[in-house]
Amino acid sequence: MSPSAASAAAAAGSFSNLAPSPAAAAAARRRWAAARCSAAGGRVAAASAGPILRELQRRCAAPLPVLRHVADAMAADMRAGLAGDGAGDLKMILSYVDSLPTGNEKGLFYALDLGGTNFRVLRVQLGGKDQRVVDTEFEQVSIPQELMYGTTEELFDFIASGLASFVAKESEKFHPLEGRKREIGFTFSFPVKQTSIDSGILIKWTKGFAVSGTAGKDVVACLTEAMKRQGLDMRVSALVNDTVGTLAGARYWDDDVMVAVILGTGTNACYIERMDAIPKLQGLQTGSGKTIINTEWGAFSTGLPLTEFDKDMDNESINPGEQIFEKTISGMYLGEIVRRVLLKMADVSALFGESVPDQLSVPFTLRTPDLCAMQNDSSDGLKEVGLILNDVVGVKKSSLEARKTVIEVCDTIVKRGGRLAGAGIVGILQKMEEDSKGLIFGKRTVVAMDGGLYEHYPQYRNYLKDAVAELLGDEDSKHVVIEHTKDGSGIGAALLAAANSKYRER
Ligand code: ADP
Ligand code: MG
């Protein structure tokens, strides 16, 4: 690792998951307004943003040695987490999924997906080996901001009512047989300590959620109680992390899938592990001898090239010192890091002229899809970049030079994120290969990818794939396929609900 990366990583030792609490955001705005009053005189004559950009690029660089260090540290943290709870950054949570979909699953099942930005309800009709997925139908609702800071009952009532209205619209042909309940696979994408396939305790909220009263509770019980309050008689037969759902969904079509990674609002990864490679199980076995481990890799923090902007964002977040990897590579945060850089450039180097627009100092105004739209602007004079800067952060006029600088800043942050995500993936593959030579690099191995960031941001995707190829080298790269599995987690959760159905014919 480069010395700058090492020192940045050391300084970030006490880092983690960021969304502003409303109070922190207001305080930040006040501090900013005060600082601007005293700095206003010097901005006109300020220098170009070049030095800040170059310093940013230097600090965010993730050359091969940094990637290698991150991959090695990821593999080492995985081992520590498998040895004992609390032994490292990675929780390495048991999924209680020890048999993967076979293709024989049949019947009507539901999936409920609570991610970070949206929640989805999905109905899947499974037709067994020949017909596979006969039909799917889904509805998606975005989660109102105030529910992220509300009570457990408010959040789960909102979810249950969405589910109730979805079911209420169904035609008769979807009604369950007399005496049977509709069964759900509940995809819940926050760190949960599973206690069985259909129960698990929330460890903590991430991705900006600060719902009171949920940590320490069984989220299936929370949902079941909310469904009761809605008069909805459904049964959760599988509680599934979104990565686990993605792996199960992708594996349904392709036996070579071994790892699944989510890059959306947040990030996480899971993989198939041998039971005898999990010391903390103390010899416990399952029929297949294998299980899916949910790494919760968002909490990883070793050797990351971080900047003052990352550290400030972390300090002002509702979970300082936590989820550092997630804060560096996932969709919720990339836009915010860029906003912080632009704010400094606007203030110190008059990037947007004499004044700094108020909106630019409001946390989380600039979002990752905005970065993506700006980076993909191919118009003369970068008109789209100008429009976004105007609409989103209130920059009335921007020179072509300034727009180009903005794109370079986006690219720097997105490149770092994509490359570090790639290094994380290689860390997992490396750990699996070390345990069983040839398991990964001796044959075709598929990494199933999903999440809005991976799906919609081509530059991010390419940086990720480049980093994987650089780390693996030509020979091993030939065997590793990084593949997008769209909405695999929904189908996967429904498949796991089917596999764990109360009415399953045995
Ligand atoms: P979740 O993670 O909430 O389950 P998704 O997987 O749909 O949901 O991911 C949504 C996230 O993906 C958004 O928060 C955003 O960061 C990112 N995203 C969505 N659309 C785009 C886009 N066009 N470009 C870049 N990132 C995007
Ligand atoms: Mg999701």
UniProtKB/TrEMBL annotation:
- Alphabetized UniProt keyword annotations: ATP-binding, Glycolysis, Kinase, Nucleotide-binding, Transferase
Lineage top rank: taxon: Eukaryota
User: Which GO biological-process labels does this protein carry?
Assistant: glucose metabolic process; glycolytic process; intracellular glucose homeostasis; response to glucose
Asked whether the UniProt record includes Disulfide bond among its keywords, one would answer no
Q: In which pathway does it act?
A: Carbohydrate degradation; glycolysis; D-glyceraldehyde 3-phosphate and glycerone phosphate from D-glucose: step 1/4; Carbohydrate metabolism; hexose metabolism
Residues in Hexokinase C-terminal domain copies: 259-498
Protein name (database record)? Phosphotransferase
Classification of source organism:
Eukaryota, Viridiplantae, Streptophyta, Embryophyta, Tracheophyta
Gene (name only):
LOC109714413
